[in-house]
Structure formats: structure tokens, C-alpha cells
UniProtKB/TrEMBL annotation:
Biological processes per GO annotation: DNA replication
Keywords: DNA replication, DNA-directed DNA polymerase, Nucleotidyltransferase, Transferase
Protein name, as recorded: DNA-directed DNA polymerase
Catalyzed reactions: DNA(n) + a 2'-deoxyribonucleoside 5'-triphosphate = DNA(n+1) + diphosphate
Length: 1072
């Protein structure tokens, strides 16, 4: 006897389902169910997580079997005490004991042994991938028509069915078909039916709806249509939640089910029993209700809102389902028939790398890869590159090593693909970063101009990026000019085909503070109550309410998130308790979906051959239905095209220098030995300089007093919460400046730690020590790095692993024993190991740090030599963000750079660098904007400088020079240089002035456009025109100082021409 739930909604049915996928699987396991279907609304969002949750349980169950076997071994005669030394089974005892410890640890990490033993779980749980589609009739296809959507359950039987399900749901969610919901048509069902099981769904299916409308013949007709399409893979679906509704035409759940069963008997269609599961347990009905209210914007006490009636929409046990449908046992048994038909799980082992398209005839990717690398190596190191040795590493040997690993893994195309779009970006003047992440450790990336700094000179490791033991796809993330990033993405789309390139989805979840505020609103409490409670939650964006509410033990996860005020409110305020309980229940549920900021998927065939897609309803671009980590883990090529503002600033600054001085700056070849770079940093003139402009970083860098590039690399790695709190930054600076003795573990390790003064700053140093001292292979050293970085201390100290030298021991033992085997004192190995455990989790990726340190050097160099041009670029990059403009204007003034007010004859669209200072741009004036700025500049270029405001409104198109625009220009001081006061000019444009020049100019331009304007009318005295032979002379009457500055601040967000406190400057200075 068994039963399988075939109709289930997780929280991927966003703000409708309230069951988390792993919890659903655990509950099905608890009930001993052999399979479970996931059928979220309209999309396949949750499929990867669902597959992994089932896979995790199944793998843990196998471990549990091994655990039971090992326990049985002990029960046969071995105990936990050491056996006698003459016992022939002593070695086997040690092996089994070690394996038993490892198995128990793994099992405990993945499941509750006692709970599983008590429930006698099924051998495996099978995932069934499905969807509850929104089915429409042909007369609803055209957008704008009245939409009647029916529900329909679709389940994948096999790989063909899964692919067809992906394609159908991709089309349903496409730009053409999406209209409020992803929509499926009859034609699509016919086209994609192969390999799919279909059931008639809930009371929102077309068959129940026809019965409700008193149209039983139509209901049967649709049953036959589905039967014709799906054959024996179509099942009628019955549910019973004990409900009835006035709109059901007199039916109840029970009588509807009975009528459907009769239809099935009459038509020869089998019936399956389901529950429309939206939450996990009966008690969770309120959780779903709150989530639904969040989605609809309603409150729980709204009487007329849409809601799920009752509390029966939970994942019931087999016994409960058999009891409900005791009158129709075959409907229960048929769920097993359906489950037995469904046999497909995701394949996480293959890689789907697109082929590089631009190969010569007969040329392989590997041959082209070698050709590009060798050309690049000759360019980087000279024609004799094969004999070049850097830091005791031969360039040719390193290249051949990397080339061999990359080609054996089939990644030659990967590098060619990245090289092509990086090269295209550079050729088209788009700023590209010097390199980020571990890819900078690859000499092939340097040779192919993907990265721009030498991994050998910087002591970077290829194995940090890719090693023989690693099975994942390489990961080369690239930084591009923030404003032109999408041009690169569009280029990739053109190269590989739009159907093979897609943006990637991202899901938002309900975080702690959001949960409080959502619960407060939904429960009908005043906004201030939610604000008061949420302010008690620590600023950590990853804070969890359970840790905020209940204090964890010191050193345990979440211990730093506890709030005594929050707990006090919960214990003593019933309303606060109600809000917090509701918030706890919804925290972590999915709340929305959007487009990942930088991830792009490139597939070898249409994307929806591999993952389902949909249209982003906000931006209109195509996105995957699976998250970035899922598509990458499934072997698809996910590239991150990151937009970096700093690259935009660098590009603009270079252009500013070219415009002002005619000099072309090559930032890739600036001298890192230039003392002006380090002088600027030591003096704290860091505003706008990449990564080092925060107050804390500026103070640190002033204390450090760097003199070399390597100091900046270390600073980027060290200035993070972990190292700061551990005192590593202070120690590094003291050692660097001779105030603290440099610790040297062993002379043979000196070269590894010398550049960081004996401090383990980089992950690569941990790897290098493990290799040089303990004999780890490069791949094994990467294991150490991962374990250290993720603070898997128990894994390092307790879990036995098989090592390449044939030993079976823990990582700690292998570290220490390997060191002894290589002639190091055990005490040295132990000392370093202790430091690794204490500090190495703070170690940083040197490749990433080195790449970002280059941007520090580049921005500092430009600022040191061309401060006006650099800061103009910084200010322009923040155009429209008043708080940032205020900050950088203040920084400019502090550094002695004048900020000049906007000027109608001098300003550009953006902030402009001049010899005198930085001129405010038109786009920075509220109410003006970039388009108006372009029009002003175009007219100025065509007709020369503007003589006065009359000349301006007469020449600039009236559609651009509207009254509010001209008023904003006046208030900003843009016309001050023409000799008129702002007060007088405002009178010229005042709409209450019958002779205002705005209306007059508009009329004259209209007349001119229809041929009623003569060149002799120019400035002719026409009554009511606002123009005359002689423009009024300046009267010198101005607003009072405070009013003038108030109006200036109104449009600029800052005071430029003066400051209200200027008259009190002396008194204020004296009072200090």
C-alpha cells in the first residue's frame, strides 16, 4: 500500500504556496511516500531545489545504510576500545572505526537518525517534475481580451517529457504569451504532449468549471480532447477539502468528485486523488494566509479578499487520504501508477559548453586556443618567451601545464569565448577591468588579454582557479564600464544567437526586517509598530529572527544577532508577540523574482533545451526560470558581466584629459613606482579612489603609509570585518613599519610569507605552505583552501579522507604527518596548523585582491596627476544622486578644487574639468536634464555664445526651453555671467508678466515654422512680444542673499555660489 501526492505547491508559487521545498520532501519521507510531485503555478522555478532535496535525502539514506553496516561490524566483536596489539584485526578495527565516525558525521549533518529510524523510511524518494499550467481557450489568446484561465496539471514522465515541459512553460511565459500569467493553449498541448502526463487539476480546471456552469456535455468534450492528446496519460483529478461554494452550481467537493469519477467510468479515463497542497501542516494555514495577503496587498481581516477557505490544503498522510477517499480506493492506487510512469531526475554531471564559432576550416578549438596563447605570450614576454623565468617559474612550463589541464577538461572553447567578447569590448572603447577573482592566476588568461597583470610576477596560483581534481566549469567574471555593460551582452547575443543567450533570474526572500513589517501590515497594526520592532534587529542583512529572539551560545552561529529589547518586547507585549510569531512563520519564503544584476547564460543550443525561460515582466528581457547557481551546477555556461562604476570613471577621466591636454593615457602601463600615487594615499586624498575612500580605509591607509603595490594588494585583502576584528590589520601594519617582530615559522617557508611579513593574508599562502611543507598536491591544497575558507573545522580535524599518496587520514593528520615526512619539525607543523585554524579563515583570494589593487593604483595615479579631470568624472558618474554629489563636492573643496556654478556658455551636459576647477553640468540641475543640456550645447556650437536670456529663449527650441527649465537655469546661476540678476531674469519669464519672453519666443518659433516669420522681425518691437530693439539693461536689483541661496539649493541640491553660513565663518572658526 502506498500513496503519492501529485498536486503540490511550494513557496516557488510565490506568495501563494507556503511550503519550503526541503520541508516538503522531509514530510513525504516521514510519511514513507516513494515519490512526490512539485506542481507550482505557471513555472518550473523550484525544480532544481526539489531534485537536490530528494537527492540529498537519498544519498544520506545510503550513508545511513553504511552506518548501520559499520555498527553491525562493531556488534560482531569489536568495541570502541583499542584491541590487543596482537589482534590480527587491529588494523581493520582502526579502518572501520574511522569510517564509522565519518559516516555518522555525514549522516548527522544531513538527517535526524532517530526520526528516520522511527518512521522506517522508504528506500528512496523519487521527484516528479511538474507544473500547474494556466490553460486558455483560443478566444483569449489576443492580449486585451477578457481572460478566462483554467488550471491543468502537467507531469514529466521522462527526459522527453521534461524537455517538452520546459519548452511549453517557456513559451507560456514568453513575451508573446504572457499576459498577467504565463498562458498555455490547446495547440501547445498538442505540440508538446509527448512524455507528459496530464491531470484535470483542481476546481479551477476546465472540466469542473463546465460542470459548475451546468454544461456536463462540454465537460465531457474537454475530457475527450485531453484524452485524445495524452491517451492513457490523461487522468481525471478529484479532491475533497470538505468545501462548497455558491459559484459551484450546487456541487460540493464530494459531489463534484463523485461526478468526475462517474465521468471517468463512462469515458474509460482513470481517476487520481489529490490534495491541493499549499502548506505543510494543518497549523500552517495561517502562514499561507499571511503570504497571500502580502501578495495581494490585503489584510487578514478584510472580509472580501481572495483567500483559501478552511485549513485542509496541507500535505496529508496516506492514511488521511485513504480515509477521505475510502469510497474510491482506485483513485489512491492510481497515484502509484502515475508515479511509476515518471522516471526522470536532473543530470548534474554533464557540461553544455557552446563551441567557439570563429574557427578556421579544419581548425580545432584546442589548436586555436594554443595559437592565441602563444601569440599572447610572445607579446607579453617577448619572442624568447619559452626561456623566460619569473620567480623561479618557467613561462613555457607554466603555460604547458595550464594548457594541458584546460584541454583535457574540454575548456578551450570557454577561454576563446571569453577572449572574443573581452577583445570586442576593448576594440569598441568599453572599459574592461584588469581581472577579478581566481582567473587572474591563469597565465593563459594573461596571454589572451583577458586579464592584464602577470600571475607569475604576483605569485598567483593556477590551482586556485582550476586544478585537475576540480570538476566544475571555470568561472571567469569580468568587469565592464557600468554604462556600457549591456553593449557587451548584446554583442554576445548577436554572436551566438538570441535563442541561445539569456539573462538569469534571481529570487528575493522575506528577510527578518521585511518579515516584521509585512506581518505588521497584514495583521492590521500601525506602521510604527513594525518600524519599532524592526529597528531592534541588528543591521546584518542576513540576520535571522530566531537568533534575534533567542540568544545563541557564545561562538555559535547567530550569537551576535541577539537583541534583548526584541526578546523583551516578545515576552511582555502581546501585540509584539503576535507580529513576531507571524514574522517567524513567513521569514525565508520567496517574495518575488527579478533579473540577476550581471549573470548571462550562453548555451550550445536554444536555452530552453536545457532550462526553462520566461519574460521578465518589468524589463521585458528573457530570463531563465532557474537561478544562477543552479544553471551553473547543471553544467551550463553562466558568465557574469559585471558593471563597475570605477571603469566608467576611468574612461571619462581619460576622455577629460584628452579633451583638455590632448594626452592619451594608457592606464594599463602607468608606473606603479610613481611616488605621487603613494603620496596621495598617505595624505588621505582618497575621495573617488577605488576601494579605499571610506573613512575607515582612509585612516588605515594613512597609518599604513604604503610605498609599494604589494602593500595595496594586502590592504584590499585585509580590510574586512574578520581580519579587522582579529587584529590582523594592526599586526600587518606594525610588522611592515618595524614596530612588531616578524614571525618566521621555518626558513624554508620564508619566501611564501615574506611579502606579508609573516602574516597569512592570502588563501594562496595556505595552499603553498600545504604543498611545500606537507607534500599536498595542488588539487589537495585547494581542498585545504576550501575547508579553511568555509570554516569546516570538523571536516579538517575529524573526517578521514583518501590522499593521493595512498594514506587515509584526516586533513589535520595529513598536514602534520606530511610535514614530518618532509623533514619539518612536528612542532612547526602544529604551530602553523593552529594559526590556520585561528586566522586562515580570514585569508583572501590574492588573485582578486591583486586585480582590484590595480584599479586602486590606476584611479590614484589619474587623480594625483589630473585631479580636476578625475573628480569631474567621479561627479558625473553620480549625476542625479544628490547625497553623493554633496559628498564629492565637499571632498573637492577640502582638497582645494573649486566647484564652479553652471554657466550657459561654459557648462557641458556633465561636470566639466577646467583649469579653474570643475564646472557644474546641465544634467545636474533639477528640472533640466541631459536632453536639454544636449540641445543647449548644440545651439551654442551652431550659433555661438548666448548674449543674454532673451537670445537664449529665442534660439533654443521652445520644446526644450520651457518655462520650468529656464527658471531652473536662472535659479542655478547659469545666466549670471550675462550681467543680469536672477531676480530680474525671473521677472522676464514670469507667466504673470504679459510680455514674458517664454510665451513670446514660443509664438515666434511657431510663426517661423509656418512661414509667418520674417528675418526682419528679429527683435522688432511688436506689442506683447516680449522682445524689442533694445533688450532691457541690467537693473542690478537682486534677491536677498538667503533667498537667492535657497533657490540655488532647490535646483542644485548644494550651495555653489556661496554658503548661508559664510558671514559667520570667522566667528565659528574662533569658537572652535
Amino acid at each position: 500500500m502506498a500513496f503519492v501526492h501529485l498536486h503540490n505547491h511550494s513557496d516557488f508559487s510565490i506568495l501563494d504556496g507556503a511550503s519550503r521545498v526541503p520541508d516538503m520532501v522531509s514530510k513525504a519521507v516521514e510519511f514513507g511516500m516513494p515519490a512526490l510531485a512539485l506542481t507550482d503555478h505557471g513555472y518550473l522555478f523550484g525544480i532544481p531545489d526539489f531534485d537536490l532535496a530528494c537527492r540529498k535525502y537519498n544519498e544520506a539514506l545510503k550513508d545511513f545504510g553504511q552506518w548501520c553496516h559499520d555498527v553491525e561490524c562493531f556488534e560482531k566483536g569489536w568495541d570502541l576500545e583499542e584491541p590487543p596489539t596482537d589482534d590480527p584485526n587491529a588494523g581493520e578495527h582502526d579502518r572501520v572505526h574511522a569510517q564509522w565516525a565519518s559516516d555518522v558525521q555525514i549522516w548527522n549533518q544531513t538527517h535526524n537518525i532517530e526520526a528516520v529510524k522511527a518512521n522506517k523510511p522508504s528506500p528512496l524518494i523519487k521527484p516528479i517534475f511538474g507544473c500547474e499550467a494556466y490553460f486558455i481557450l483560443d478566444d483569449c489568446i489576443e492580449k486585451g481580451t477578457k481572460q478566462v484561465r483554467y488550471h491543468l496539471i502537467l507531469l514529466a514522465k521522462n527526459e522527453t517529457g521534461y524537455v517538452n515541459l520546459m519548452k511549453m512553460m517557456s513559451e507560456a511565459g514568453s513575451k508573446d504569451m504572457f499576459y498577467y500569467k504565463p498562458r498555455t493553449t490547446l495547440e501547445m498541448l498538442k505540440r508538446y504532449h509527448e512524455g507528459i502526463i496530464c491531470t484535470s487539476a483542481c476546481v479551477s480546471g476546465i472540466i469542473p468549471r463546465m460542470l459548475f456552469e451546468g454544461r456536463p456535455e462540454e465537460a465531457e468534450r474537454w475530457a475527450k480532447i485531453y484524452q485524445d492528446i495524452f491517451g492513457d496519460d490523461f487522468y481525471l483529478e478529484i479532491q475533497d477539502h470538505g468545501l462548497s461554494d455558491p459559484s459551484w452550481g450546487g456541487y460540493t467537493d464530494r459531489t463534484l468528485a463523485e461526478r468526475i469519477v462517474k465521468m471517468g467510468h463512462d469515458l474509460g479515463i482513470k481517476v487520481v486523488a489529490t490534495n491541493d497542497n499549499h502548506y505543510l501542516t494543518k497549523e500552517d494555514a495561517s502562514v499561507q494566509d499571511i503570504a497571500s495577503c502580502i501578495g495581494s496587498g490585503a489584510r487578514v481581516d478584510d472580509e472580501n479578499r481572495k483567500r483559501m477557505t478552511g485549513s485542509e490544503f496541507y500535505l496529508k498522510s496516506e492514511q488521511e487520504m485513504r480515509q477521505i477517499f475510502s469510497w474510491c480506493p482506485e483513485a489512491i492506487e492510481n497515484t502509484i501508477e502515475v508515479a511509476n510512469k515518471c522516471n526522470y531526475e536532473l543530470d548534474w554531471t554533464h557540461m553544455y559548453l557552446p563551441k567557439f564559432p570563429d574557427l578556421a576550416e579544419g581548425e580545432t578549438s584546442e589548436e586555436r586556443f594554443r595559437k592565441e596563447c602563444e601569440l599572447g605570450l610572445a607579446r607579453r614576454y617577448g619572442d624568447d618567451w619559452q626561456n623566460v623565468v619569473i620567480n623561479e617559474i618557467n613561462v613555457k612550463d607554466r603555460f604547458e601545464y595550464e594548457y594541458d589541464i584546460i584541454c583535457k577538461k574540454g575548456f578551450a572553447d570557454y577561454f576563446l569565448i571569453v577572449q572574443e567578447y573581452v577583445r570586442w569590448a576593448k576594440e569598441n572603447g568599453i572599459g574592461v577591468g584588469p581581472g577579478r577573482g581566481s582567473a587572474a592566476g591563469a597565465i593563459v588568461a594573461y596571454a589572451m588579454d583577458i586579464t592584464s597583470f602577470d600571475p607569475l610576477e604576483n605569485g598567483l596560483m593556477f590551482e586556485r582557479f582550476l586544478s585537475p581534481q576540480r570538476s566544475e566549469m571555470p568561472d571567469i567574471d569580468m568587469d565592464f564600464d557600468d554604462e556600457r555593460r549591456l553593449e557587451v551582452v548584446e554583442h554576445v547575443r548577436q554572436i551566438y544567437g538570441s535563442e541561445r543567450v539569456s539573462h538569469v533570474i534571481t529570487y528575493s526572500t522575506i528577510k527578518a526586517k521585511q518579515a516584521i513589517n509585512d506581518a505588521c501590515r497584514v495583521l492590521g497594526y500601525p506602521v510604527y509598530m513594525g518600524q519599532r520592532l524592526s529597528k531592534m534587529i541588528p543591521g546584518d542583512p542576513n540576520a535571522h529572527l530566531k537568533f534575534v529572539l533567542h540568544k545563541a551560545q557564545e561562538g555559535q552561529k547567530g550569537a551576535d544577532q541577539y537583541s534583548a529589547d526584541f526578546e523583551d518586547a516578545y515576552e511582555n507585549d502581546p501585540d509584539a508577540r503576535r507580529i513576531i510569531d507571524a514574522a517567524l512563520s513567513i521569514e525565508g519564503l520567496h517574495r518575488g523574482e527579478g533579473v540577476h544584476a550581471c549573470a548571462v547564460l550562453i548555451a550550445p543550443t536554444p536555452v530552453n533545451d536545457h532550462v526553462p525561460t520566461k519574460v521578465d515582466t518589468k524589463g521585458g528581457v528573457e530570463i531563465t526560470q532557474y537561478e544562477g547557481h543552479s544553471v551553473a551546477d547543471m553544467g551550463l555556461l553562466k558568465m557574469d558581466f559585471l558593471g563597475l562604476r570605477t571603469l566608467t570613471v576611468i574612461s571619462r577621466a581619460i576622455k577629460n584629459v584628452k579633451d583638455n591636454y590632448g594626452i592619451d593615457i594608457d592606464v594599463d602601463n602607468i608606473p606603479f613606482t610613481d611616488p605621487e600615487i603613494y603620496r596621495l594615499l598617505r595624505e588621505g586624498r582618497t575621495a573617488g579612489v577605488f576601494q579605499v575612500e571610506s573613512a575607515g580605509m582612509t585612516a588605515t591607509i594613512k597609518g599604513m603609509r604604503p610605498t609599494e603595490y604589494k602593500h595595496i594588494v594586502a590592504l584590499i585583502a585585509l580590510y574586512r570585518p574578520g581580519p579587522l576584528n582579529a587584529g590582523m590589520v594592526t599586526s600587518y601594519i606594525n610588522r611592515m613599519n618595524g614596530r612588531e617582530e616578524v614571525k618566521d615559522y621555518d626558513p624554508r617557508l620564508h619566501d611564501i610569507l615574506e611579502e606579508t611579513y609573516g602574516t597569512m593574508v592570502y588563501q594562496e599562502q595556505v595552499m603553498q605552505i600545504s604543498m611545500k611543507m606537507s607534500g599536498f598536491t595542488a588539487g589537495e591544497s585547494d581542498k585545504v583552501r576550501k575547508a579553511v575558507a568555509k570554516k569546516k573545522i570538523k571536516l579538517m580535524q575529524e573526517v578521514v579522507q583518501h590522499w593521493d599518496d595512498g594514506t587515509d587520514e584526516t586533513m589535520e593528520a595529513h598536514w602534520k604527518n606530511g610535514a614530518v615526512r618532509n623533514g619539518f619539525d612536528r612542532s612547526v607543523a602544529e604551530s602553523i596548523w593552529d594559526d590556520v585554524l585561528e586566522f586562515a579563515s580570514y585569508a583572501f583570494n590574492k588573485s582578486h585582491s591583486a586585480g582590484y589593487a590595480i584599479l586602486v593604483m590606476q584611479t590614484a595615479w589619474i587623480k594625483a596627476h589630473y585631479p580636476h579631470e578625475f573628480m569631474a568624472a567621479v561627479l558625473t558618474s553620480y549625476m542625479g544622486k544628490t547625497d553623493k554629489i554633496v559628498h564629492y563636492v565637499s571632498a573637492c573643496r577640502h582638497e582645494g578644487i573649486k566647484i564652479l556654478p553652471p554657466d550657459i556658455n561654459e557648462s557641458g551636459k556633465d561636470f566639466t574639468a577646467t583649469k579653474e576647477g570643475i564646472r557644474f553640468g546641465f544634467a545636474g540641475i533639477r528640472g533640466v536634464g541631459a536632453g536639454v543640456g544636449e540641445a543647449i550645447m548644440l545651439e551654442r556650437q551652431k550659433g555661438g555664445p548666448f548674449a543674454n536670456i532673451h537670445d537664449f529663449v529665442d534660439r533654443v527650441d521652445a520644446s526644450q526651453a520651457k518655462r520650468n527649465v529656464v527658471e531652473a537655469l536662472i535659479k542655478a546661476g547659469a545666466f549670471d555671467s550675462t550681467g543680469y540678476t536672477r531676480m530680474q531674469m525671473m521677472s522676464f519669464v514670469d507667466k504673470n508678466n504679459p510680455q514674458n519672453i517664454i510665451d513670446a519666443a514660443t509664438k515666434r518659433q511657431k510663426d517661423k515654422a509656418v512661414g509667418q516669420f520674417s528675418m526682419f522681425d528679429m527683435f522688432a518691437e511688436v506689442e506683447g512680444s516680449g522682445f524689442s530693439d533694445s533688450v532691457p539693461e541690467p537693473d542690478g536689483v537682486e534677491w536677498d542673499r538667503r533667498f537667492k541661496l535657497t533657490k540655488e539649493y532647490e535646483v542644485l541640491g548644494i550651495y555653489v555660489s556661496d554658503h548661508p553660513l559664510r558671514p559667520y565663518e570667522y566667528a565659528l572658526a574662533k569658537s572652535r
